[in-house]
């Protein structure tokens, strides 16, 4: 096993360990496990790590039960035409910026492309906490002097 193969195996092990601790409660964890299990290169290794339990990811878009409030538009007579134009332009720019950032975030979170915005925020928070724990464990392992003692 060369260095690149070892690196992939360690990363896969860490990702699957992180995802399996969530017990399928989060969408990102199910997406990570499903992707690793279906991949040609990592499928066998994933089955060895996870055991025989299989996971199914139906890729349904989660629905949010939260109601979204709509803001009233500014009446041009009350706000003035020039002010109304500036407000519309600012809203359009802000909306485009939020949409771009949301698409980037959906690409970063496993399974994010199938989530609505509300679910994406919840999943992102959970995923970041799990990644932070993974980094802490990896740093501990890298700094542990006992791992480098030759017997």
UniProtKB/TrEMBL annotation:
InterPro entries cross-referenced by the UniProt entry: IBH1-like, IBH1_N
Keyword Transcription regulation: yes
Alphabetical keyword list: Transcription, Transcription regulation
Swiss-Prot/TrEMBL GO biological process terms: regulation of DNA-templated transcription
Keyword NAD among UniProt keywords: no
PANTHER family noted in UniProt: TRANSCRIPTION FACTOR IBH1-LIKE 1
Name used for this protein in its record: IBH1-like N-terminal domain-containing protein
């Amino acid at each position: 096993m060369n260095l690149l193969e070892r690196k992939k195996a360690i990363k896969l092990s860490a990702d699957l360990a992180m995802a399996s601790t969530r017990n399928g409660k989060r969408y990102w964890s199910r997406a990570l496990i499903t992707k690793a299990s279906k991949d040609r290169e990592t499928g066998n290794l994933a089955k060895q790590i996870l055991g025989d339990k299989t996971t199914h990811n139906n890729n349904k878009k989660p629905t949010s039960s939260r109601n979204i409030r709509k803001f009233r538009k500014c009446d041009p007579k009350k706000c003035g035409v020039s002010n109304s134009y500036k407000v519309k332009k600012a809203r359009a720019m802000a909306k485009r910026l939020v949409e771009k950032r949301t698409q980037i975030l959906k690409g970063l979170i496993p399974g994010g492309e199938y989530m609505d915005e509300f679910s994406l925020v919840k999943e992102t928070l959970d995923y970041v906490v799990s990644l932070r724990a993974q980094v802490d464990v990896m740093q501990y392992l890298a700094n542990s002097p006992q791992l480098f003692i030759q017997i």
